[in-house]
Amino acid sequence: MRELRSLGATQQPSGMIGHTTFWQRPARPSRAFTYNLLSRRAFQTATIQPPLLGWVWAEVAERSGDASFADEGRTIVQRFHEFLDRERADADGLLGILQPDETGLDATPTYDQPLGRRSHPKVGFLALQAFNRRRGFNYRRVVADGGFHATDVLVNTAWILGWEGLARLSQTGAAARAEALTSALVRRLYDRHAGIFFAEGPMGKLLPVSTWASLAPLALDRLPSEIGYRIVNEHLLNPRSFWLDYPVPSTAASEPSFVPGSDRYLWIERYWRGPTWLFSTWFILRGLLRLGFEAEGAHLADRTIALIRQSGFREYFNPITGEGMGARNFAVSTIAIECAAIAERPPNVRQSVA
Q: Peptide bond before 121: cis, by omega within 30 degrees of 0?
């Protein structure tokens, strides 16, 4: 609860909550130009991350049983959603992004093709940042001036989950909004021929790169079951794509860009191009159990716990060998314990987690 209140305390008058907050001092001069800052002394970056805040706040409020905390969160999340609606939403309500790092999947291969030399973390990415900084990281201005923009699957899955959370916080109309956004997501980003979701690039065309974000809509309560079954059977459970020894890899093994271990550009690690990150496990497990794939959900939970037993709470893992990589004692990876607990509950008493 304290962490969420701390995050809420950084909300700007506009309703914006940026990706990174500098609590104690401004960014170091050597790092300031690589952060999405409007000025070195800005206390917060000017870009977003997947907007899961509504879902997370609802989950904590329900577990704590604190009605005043729920009321507090409803106000903060409503203002945040109003900001995103005003500044980022297209006519159908789906959100746009300015840079691939706004997806939380910094170097995802999804945007390699439209960005080329400007893809993260190549040198040209700094030019992309500079273009956006000159326009105040304002989505409408960037789009109007011909800058890169995209409609991302994970960001919009989180957006819908945020509205589902706001409904649980008793916000009038939030459930209907989540339903409408789910329909828009299917209409716009679901490839019926491929049977999976893809991001939409700046030219308005789908970008056919299969990553774990393509599976993320499985977590949505209102995703049509026939779409969910097809994603699971044709993609998630395919041992040549996602169902590896330690699932779920961040990029499908069938993609040319797939690298199960360390992948560097010069000296910089390129994340989310193959290794398994346990942040994604919750989305996938929720979808499997919602659709009745009990055995597969138990297998995913078992393999996730196997990763922790073998390598500890690492930042990410090789999906073939289970080797831990990146930071140690990485807090997000503790979601493995919660996922295991969910898989063990009888279906009628299962609870979702954030």
A: yes
Half-sphere exposure of 32 (CA within 13 A, CB side): 11
Of the candidates 300, 314, 187, the one whose C-alpha atom is nearest the C-alpha of residue 261 is 314
Q: Residues 6 or more apart from 337 whose CB is under 8 A from it?
A: 305, 308
Pairing state between β 324-325 and 316-317: antiparallel
pLDDT (tens, 9 = 90+) of the chain, 354 residues, equals 999 999 999 999 999 999 999 998 888 887 788 899 999 889 999 999 999 999 999 999 999 999 999 999 999 999 999 999 999 999 999 999 999 999 999 999 999 999 999 999 899 999 999 999 999 999 999 999 999 999 999 999 999 999 999 999 999 999 999 999 999 999 999 999 999 999 999 999 999 999 999 999 999 999 999 999 999 999 999 999 999 999 999 999 999 999 999 998 888 899 999 999 999 999 999 999 999 999 999 999 999 999 999 999 999 999 999 999 999 999 999 999 988 887 776 554 444 433
Q: Which amino acid is at 84?
A: L
Please report how many Cα atoms fall inside a 13 Å half-sphere around the Cα of residue 279, on the Cβ side. 18
The fold adopted by the segment(s) 1-211 is Glycosyltransferase (1.50.10)
d(CA 192, CA 157): 18
**Taking the domains of the chain in order of start, what are their residue ranges?**
1-211, 237-344
How far is residue 266's CA from residue 263's CA, in Å, rounded to a whole number? 10
